[in-house]
Amino acid sequence: MRLARETDSILSDWRDRALRFEAEIGKSVLGQARVIRLLTIATFARGHVLLEGDVGVGKTTILRALARAIGGAFERIEGTIDLMPADLIYHAHLDEDGKPRIDPGPLLKQGEGLSVFFFNEINRARPQVHSLLLRLMAERSVSAFNREYHFPHVQVFADRNRVEREETFELPAAARDRFLMEVQVATPDGEEARRSLVFDPRFHNVDSLLMNVEPGVLEPQALETVARMIQISVRASPTLEAYVLALWDALRDPRDHGVVVEGVDMQRLVQGGASPRGLSYLVRAARVRAWLEGRDMIVPEDVRAVFPEVMAHRIFVDPVYEMRREKLVGELIAGIFARVPAP
Amino acid sequence: MHAAARSLALILAMALLLLAPIPAGAQLRSVELYAPRPFGHVIGDRLTLSADIVLDVPFQLDPASLPRARPLNYWLELTDVRLTDRGTSGDAQRYALNLTYQIFYAPLEPKRLDIPPLQLLATDGERRVEFVVPGWSFLTSPLREIVSTEQGAAMALRPDAPPPPIPVSGTLRGLLFSLGCVLAALVVLAWHVGWGPFAQRRGRPFARAARAVRAALPSPKTAPSSPAYRQALLSLHRAFDATAGKGVFAEDLPGFFSAHPGFVLVETEIRRLFAASRRLFFGDDLVAATQELPPAELIALAGRLKAVERGGR
């Protein structure tokens, strides 16, 4: 009993910290409250995140602010077409004495304390790099210099811009499935936020802007434990389990549930996906959201709030519809939530 | 026959006019009397004589000289006198005088009777001129034989005339029309309130839900079983979903209220309903749920929601 109360008080302390964490990021990023909330959920669910959006909407700024607020070691790398896996692991160069030297690359430089690994423009890197990343995300380890390096606290954030498609490599489905969320970052819609972003000189220099963010609001080493406590303490009732399974069923077979997307042959639209891993990620994220809302049980709203980001990139649609995927999958998900009754 | 009788009367009248002394000056142009046929009238008949009177302008008929409706003698009664001013044309002032008489003479054989002439007065304000509407005579006929040749009792009364049918088709049409209107209004009311065959129609989800709640919780006093209470909550949630056209969760309530402002009246209760169902379905806590929203209040809320849906309060 005493232990239970302790768990409760630890969790509510951490909830306050999580809200402070959001507020700190919000200081330097305007009009992206939803994205920040989703990133917080991902952080406490220990999941990796892929950010997608236009150029210049603040993807990198969000991630840098986030890394600063989480605290711990932070590394970043830019994806380019000639980037090779080895470039992540070691760095060969001539030192000041003119002797060749091999130093650890960005991934190994910080050792096991690496907490945030930020991969910029991930779709510009080659599939070899993607597969290294796949291992890092799935097992939190890499092999280098004849041994294994473990990164127990690492969280991978990647971004890609969706405008350019030349000289890019689509991420393999297996790598995409490893991401907890794919978050779309859009231009802020609030008039006030837009005006500030354009005219307020504070937002013109990213480096000084980021200095406003209090560093190390969260402890990366403790996050794993807190995440586990959240998963244990937030309950999912049988009704909610049935609801999630019904959602899954509807996602795999939308026609049977009467979900209709305009101008689409519903029999062909969904080809596969929505893996069991995806569903377990969904419930994990929903638990964190319930905890952030101050509840000890998952309700359908939690599932709905994280569903598009967690599930959309795991749905494989017919190639005919691939080009319009974003819109169609969005409508499909909206249709499923409209049709599947809860509770 | 009738026209012939009228022309005959006209000739008679003209003759009388010629015979009558011409009054001083020529203020009276003419008096023409039109009468019905001069024979075949029986006791009780009404005879209408009409006289066309033409005077010189500025002479006018003195209304005071018109006879009153009254019994003229033991068999003749003047029942109606009606004067119509036909206006002037050129220098002639025209009147139409209608005189209705009823005769009460019971003759034993055809007999000639006379309606006496009438003295009238015309005046232009200073001068007064008398003139005469001529009298008229006609033949009356008896109603019965002098000596009865009939079998049985003499002087037996004739059977009563059958009552004439009153024209009712207009009234009947009106009655049928209004009955149709009443029936249509009743159908519209039943449709609106959701009575009888309209209970299942779409667009009245709360009416159906209220029935389902009452069926699930027949006695509000006793503690409900978990499945019954669940069923009652579920049917209300389905009604919310159907009203909004999509799933309504607790977090969607502000949007629901702005889309359906009528439900703002019961906002507190609706929020309690959602809180209770959260506790029941996702917290698995029936006791807390029934404390939040006791079954009796749940039934009352279902009724209120039904009323709000109908547009009432």
Q: How would you describe this structure to a colleague?
A:
The complex is a heterodimer of chains A (343) and B (313). Chain A is an alpha/beta fold and 343 residues long. Chain A has helices at residues 2-28, 33-44, 59-70, 85-89, 106-109, 127-139, 173-178, 191-199, 206-210, 220-233, 238-252, 266-269, 276-292, 300-311, 325-339; strands at 48-53, 73-78, 90-94, 100-104, 114-120, 141-144, 147-150, 155-161, 179-185, 270-273, 315-317. Chain A folds into two domains: 21-220, 3-Layer(aba) Sandwich (Rossmann fold), CATH 3.40.50.300; 234-339, Orthogonal Bundle (Helicase, Ruva Protein, domain 3). Chain A is 50% helix and 17% strand. Chain B is an alpha+beta fold and 313 residues long. Helices cover 38% and strands 22% of the residues of chain B. Chain B has eight helices and ten strands. Chain B has helices at residues 2-19, 169-193, 205-216, 226-244, 253-259, 267-282, 286-292, 295-310; strands spanning 28-34, 46-56, 60-61, 70-71, 76-89, 92-103, 111-115, 118-123, 128-133, 136-140. In chain B, the strands form three sheets. Chain B has a five-stranded antiparallel beta sheet with strand order 1-2-6-5-4. The chains are: A alpha/beta (343), B alpha+beta (313). Chain A binds chain B through residues 235-240, 296-301, 304, 337-343, and chain B through 233-234, 237-238, 241, 245-247, 249-252, 277-278, 281-284.
List the helices and strands and how they pair.
The complex is a heterodimer of chains A (343) and B (313).
Chain A: H1 2-28, H2 33-44, E1 48-53, H3 59-70, E2 73-78, H4 85-89, E3 90-94, E4 100-104, H5 106-109, E5 114-120, H6 127-139, E6 141-144, E7 147-150, E8 155-161, H7 173-178, E9 179-185, H8 191-199, H9 206-210, H10 220-233, H11 238-252, H12 266-269, E10 270-273, H13 276-292, H14 300-311, E11 315-317, H15 325-339
Parallel strand pairs in A: 1-8, 1-9, 2-5, 5-8
Antiparallel strand pairs in A: 3-4, 6-7, 10-11
Chain B: H1 2-19, E1 28-34, E2 46-56, E3 60-61, E4 70-71, E5 76-89, E6 92-103, E7 111-115, E8 118-123, E9 128-133, E10 136-140, H2 169-193, H3 205-216, H4 226-244, H5 253-259, H6 267-282, H7 286-292, H8 295-310
Helix pairs in contact in B: 3-4, 3-8, 6-7
